[in-house]
Amino acid sequence: MEKKNIFENILIISIVAILYIIPVSTIEGDNYNIFYYTRLIFIVFFLFLFLKRLKIRTHYLVFVAVFLFRFVIYKEVSFNLILLTSCIYIFDYLLEKDINYDKINKIINIASLVFLVQIIITMIYNKKIQTTSLIGDNNYTGYFIFFLFIYFFYTKKKIWILWFTLAMFTFSRATIIAVCIVLILGIIEKSKKIVIKKETSVKIVGTLVILGQIIVIPISYMFVQKFNNYDYTYTYVQGFQRLSNLMDNSNYFRFMVNILAIKSFSPLNLLIGLKENTFEGINFIKGKTLFPHNTMLGLYIHFGMVVSFIYILKYIKLYKKCNNVSTIPIYLALITYQIFLGPSSFYGIELLVFMLVIKGIDKYLEKKENK
Fold first, then answer.
1. Which residues is 285 bridged to in the sheet?
2. Which of 41, 55, 199, 304 has the highest CB neighbour count under 10 A?
3. Which pairs with CB-CB distance under 8 Å and at least 24 residues apart come from 116-124?
4. CA 196 vs CA 183, 199, 320: distances in Å
5. pLDDT, tens digit (0-9, with 9 covering 90-100), for 94-121
């Protein structure tokens, strides 16, 4: 086997393993040390690729400039920006690679099996759907279950029904909306009742991805205005209660923290983000760190709006590369996550996993068309 293929295999396995296999928590609680140590792997891969290829693009220089400005002005060394830059570099590398479907399929099948075992063990002890490969959170458990659901749904493996069921029982509202979008629109698309040209689909997806980021601003203000006298006591609602009422304090704080992010806009903040531990949202609820649950605003807080939009545009670039009209429902569902959840501390990593899932689906559909 060629060295290139060996490196590529290790890289792809590592990306999937870090989200779906390597434990970063136990039944008792989370281990943030392991969580952050595993992220160092991406920086190692980045350094290897960079020294080997010495390929520089304009947006890499933007990341370097933001890093240097943050160091000079804030006296900070941003590990998260190094991680994000590393993931973007790896993304650009793998996006141009013609990755074999069987390779992706085998890796995702194995990872999903390990992930499922972790979920079963956690369900036995905690009576809820979570996994030891992620920091315990229903929304992000649902998010990465969603990736497996769309992969198996589009590659026509009946196990998608299991992942659909697990997604629903995370009780994550964003996840339930996302899987329903894919299921309903996917069935409509397969019936060929709606025909869209590939060139048109790129414009549709690109426009919706950008609008999806901006629309959160009026939504946040409208929601908070409606609940401006709402009780500020935070209670974490679980189970079916999460579905019974969208007008709860959890959503109130979710939108309020978006407004706090918007109010923090300034020329400097828009360029390089806020200084660590200065965002008002961090002390918004006593004892709970709360950042914007939105991709654009969440990344803006840490890195500024320029880096934020470069990251978002990568999703559009992925669709242009794997331009299959059948995957439009996936992107519509993804926008739901980007509006109401955001990447949290998974930024960069979620993009890489999503790319592998989309590439796998694209290769499957291509293979099917050529039969």
1. 288
2. 304
3. 116/162, 118/23, 119/166, 121/27, 122/27
4. 18, 8, 15
5. 999 888 889 999 999 999 999 998 888 8
